[in-house]
């Protein structure tokens, strides 16, 4: 709706923005590498589109990041439950 009403994303991010250190490759991040690859790709896409003004592209990029982060959270929780770090359900 906002897009149809003519709203635009206000470009404000540098294309080289990076997530916090703990979420970057080589920092000891936990979880499946393939999901981290998806997360890294989503961050790259946000950095690309957030320098522009297309509200729909930005929304899609954030939706992809949310999906990747959610899958990672689920995978880490399953690993923690399997290892005994978290109690089994």
| Ends apart, CA distance between termini | 41 Å
Q: What kind of oligomer do you see?
A: single chain
Low-confidence stretches are: none
Evaluate the radius of gyration: 16 Å
- Hey, roughly how much beta strand do the residues contain? under 5%
Estimate the helix proportion, in percent: 40-55%
Molecular shape: elongated
**Major sheet summary line:** none
What is the number of beta strands?
0
Please trace the helix and strand order, writing H or E for each element.
HH
The total of helices stands at 2
In round numbers, the mean pLDDT is 90
Helix-and-strand structural type:
mainly alpha
Structure description:
This protein is mostly helical. It is built from 2 helices and no strands. The protein has helices at 33-49, 55-83. Helix 1 (33-49) runs antiparallel to helix 2.
In brief:
The chain is built from two helices and no strands.
Identify the notable features of this structure and list them briefly.
single chain; 89 residues; mainly alpha; 2 helices; 52% helix; elongated
């Amino acid at each position: 709706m906002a897009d149809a009403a003519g709203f635009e994303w206000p470009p404000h991010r540098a294309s080289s923005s990076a997530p916090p250190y703990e979420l970057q490759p080589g920092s000891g991040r936990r979880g499946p590498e393939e999901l981290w690859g998806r997360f890294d790709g989503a961050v790259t896409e946000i950095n690309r589109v957030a320098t522009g003004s297309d509200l729909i592209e930005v929304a899609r990029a954030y939706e992809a990041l949310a999906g990747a982060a959610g899958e990672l959270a689920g995978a880490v929780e399953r690993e923690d439950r399997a290892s005994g770090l978290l109690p089994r359900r």
